[in-house]
Amino acid sequence: MATTYDEGSDVIVTAAFRDAAGAPVVPATAEYRLTTSKGTELLDWTAVSPLGATVEILIPATYHSVATGGLEARHLALRFTYGSPAKTGAAGLEYHVRALTAYA
């Protein structure tokens, strides 16, 4: 089940990078992108910094307004490279943003 955050809130996502066998890795590069459930891009590919096997990504409140009331989904896509020779990995996460009108 997706986590729900209130409209206008910062969201911190914890990302743990793993290789194909499931072992933790520190990526050479990593970036993320944020879209709506309809595919509208809210935040273009953005570098993750600093890099580590586990990182926290701050998604600013700016990207958490709700136009329609109720709940809106956000999709966070991650892609990264690691190892030598370079290998690639990817992951995704969905969360919801609840309109403040839900409390009215």
Compact summary:
The chain has strands spanning 4-6, 11-16, 29-36, 41-47, 54-59, 71-82, 87-98.
Task: Explain what this protein looks like in three dimensions.
It contains no helices and seven strands. It is mainly β and 104 residues long. It has a five-stranded mixed beta sheet with strand order 1-7-6-3-4, with no helix packed on it. A hairpin with a 4-residue loop joins β3 and β4. The chain is elongated and about 50 Å long. The two termini are 25 Å apart. 12% of the residues are buried.
Q: What global shape is seen?
A: elongated
Structural class: mainly beta
How much helicity do the residues have?
A: under 10%
* Unreliable sequence segments: none
Main beta sheet strand tally, sense and closure: 5 strands, mixed
Rounded radius of gyration (Å): 15 Å
How many H/I helices? 0
* Terminal residue distance: 25 Å
**Which percent range describes the beta-strand content?**
over 45%
The secondary-structure element order is EEEEEEE
Q: How many strand elements?
A: 7
Mean pLDDT: 93
Give the quaternary arrangement of the chains.
single chain
Instruction: Give the strand order of the largest sheet, numbering strands 1, 2, ... along the chain.
Output: 1-7-6-3-4
